[in-house]
From TrEMBL:
Residues 25-35 have a biased composition (Low complexity). The keyword Transcription applies. GO terms for cellular component: cytoplasm; nucleus; transcription regulator complex. GO terms for biological process: negative regulation of BMP signaling pathway; negative regulation of transcription by RNA polymerase II. This is SKI family transcriptional corepressor 1b. It comes from Callorhinchus milii. Its main location: nucleus. It comes from the Eukaryota. Residues 1-23 have a biased composition (Polar residues). Signal peptide: none annotated.
């Protein structure tokens, strides 16, 4: 116990040192959730390739397969069961908006999935996504998404590389609608909505010009990234959950705002 406590102390000191220059508080994982942070061990590369497994998603068993050292779920099976009331285009567009990338199966892997009953014999291809990505996708449709618990003065340090690029603070407490001006530019201190911020840039010495995409309301979720290239899993998941808000799911903007308000009030008590 003393060893674990000392290690946690070192981690906390490192986090405090990193954020000492910022007025906004860092995001720390609630102790009660630390025990469940990794459903799969992060070093899962020792799993045998093409191992067939089963993951429970919303009470239903979904076939999984180990690809590149990571357990992935069959997207087609998820679409035909949990999301059977939604069209292919709806699922595809939502997946792209959430930044979820499918890993396509090889012919051998596809045959394994057929034999496991996840795919019909006539299927010619299949995309695979992680369980975390599957949960995010299903939550965006099934209406069980809730914002992460964040302190009022917390902000994500984010950046994008569109045009000359830019960096700013994404403040979840201000993100109460899809067009909320919740990002404060690091360079000019002006506030922007997420979809406007990716078209806002500053030409600094080290900047390189990148041709931006055409204006697309959901494109900010693909371009706006955490400045920390190696964030903790919990921080990365919290960022994913925030991006999933106001993304066309069954939760209305008013309901999302009320839920976020309630969570923030909890931290102020």
């Amino acid at each position: 116990m003393e060893k674990i406590s000392s290690q946690l102390g070192v981690v906390n000191d490192a986090v405090s040192s990193t954020n000492s220059k910022q007025e906004l508080q860092p995001y720390s994982q609630p102790p009660q959730q630390q025990q469940h942070q990794h459903h799969l061990a992060p070093g899962s590369s020792n799993l045998k390739p093409n191992t067939v497994g089963e993951a429970i998603l919303y009470g239903l068993p979904i076939v999984s397969l180990v690809i590149d050292g990571q357990e992935r779920l069959c997207l087609a099976q998820i679409s035909n069961t949990l999301l059977k009331h939604y069209s292919y285009n709806e699922i595809h567009n939502r997946r792209v908006a959430l930044g979820i990338t499918c890993v396509q199966c090889t012919p051998v892997q596809l045959e394994i999935l057929r034999r496991a009953g996840a795919m019909p014999i006539s299927s010619r291809r299949c995309g695979m996504i992680t369980k975390r990505e599957a949960e995010r996708l299903c939550k965006s449709f099934l209406g069980e998404h809730s914002p992460p618990k964040l302190p009022e003065n917390f902000a994500f340090d984010v950046s994008h590389e569109c045009a000359w690029g830019c960096r700013g603070n994404f403040i979840p407490a201000r993100y109460n609608s899809s067009r909320a001006k919740c990002i404060k530019c690091t360079y000019c201190n002006m506030y922007f909505s997420p979809n406007k911020f990716i078209f806002h840039s500053h030409r600094v010495a080290e900047a390189k010009y990148t041709q931006p995409d055409a204006a697309n309301f959901n494109s900010w979720r693909r371009h706006l990234k955490l400045s920390d290239k190696s964030p903790s899993d919990y921080l990365a998941h919290a960022w994913e959950d925030v991006k999933a808000m106001f993304n066309g799911g069954s939760l209305s903007e008013r309901l999302c705002a009320l839920v976020m308000s309630a969570l923030l009030s909890f931290f102020l008590i």
